[in-house]
Amino acid sequence: MKKESILGAFSQTARLAPRAQRQILDVYTTLALVSLCSMCGYYTACRFPFITSFGMILPLGLLGLVCAVLFMAPTQQNLSVRRLLVWTIGWISGVVIQPGIIQFMYSGEAHIVYAALGISVALFVSFGVAVMSSTQAQTVYAVGAVIFAMSALSWVSLLNYIYPTPVLSNMSLMVGLSGPCLSAVVHTSNMIERAAQNVDIDPVVSALGFFSDLVQMFVHLVALLSNDRQRKEEEERRDKRSGRRCYPKSKATSW
């Protein structure tokens, strides 16, 4: 079974040349390796205190590596070097987000991290399959509808700043979550369009863009699920306090 037959099941990729299909598979393979490096970075940071030892050097180094990958000329001669750089970006990303994940792990809310990770992967895969299975016009209309909805709901952030409420806070996070989701759709659509026009696809830059979308989805989902959890705990504490206050009163009236 050829690798190209994997993409032959989708309407948008089945019409592509075998060379273009191999390039698209190379993008997703590179993305999978970057994600694996990110998990390795998280595991390494759990064993060694990189954040406390290096401080702001790691985020600044991450920014420098991203700029280096984006500004390097995408040629076959430096493809191996750029792959190494983007794998390093994945590893440092895992190290940088490790303290935030550990905070949830130690507080007994590890299920939030696992749920956010699973949902972000499911969203990314579903959006990729949807774009590959839809026509270009359908994708453009869907992107336009999402952009219109985001522009209409962008006032939610301003209202949440003026009148902070849990409902507006969750809506603001939902608006933020729609950003990386929309970016993943646009990146996938542009990649397929370039492949249809027989334009070479750089696997490193494309994988870096997809990895950025995945990380943003994960961060927004963690914040959204954490807010829901805190809101439920506050409601439970409020109910318990109100129950304790009413108990002596009811006891006094019974006498």
Count of DSSP helices?
Answer: 11
Tell me the distance between the termini: 83 Å
Largest sheet: none
* Category by helix and strand content: mainly alpha
Give start-end ranges of low-pLDDT stretches. 245-255
- What share of residues are in beta strands? under 5%
Molecular shape: globular
Compute the CA-based radius of gyration.
Answer: 23 Å
Order of helices and strands: HHHHHHHHHHH
Portion of residues within helices? over 70%
Q: Could you give the count of β-strands?
A: 0
Regarding quaternary structure, what we see is single chain
Mean pLDDT: 77
Write the layout of secondary structure elements.
Blueprint: H1 4-7, H2 11-14, H3 18-47, H4 50-54, H5 57-71, H6 79-106, H7 110-133, H8 136-153, H9 155-162, H10 166-196, H11 203-254
Helix pairs in contact: 3-6, 3-10, 3-11, 5-6, 6-7, 6-11, 7-10, 7-11, 8-10, 9-10, 10-11
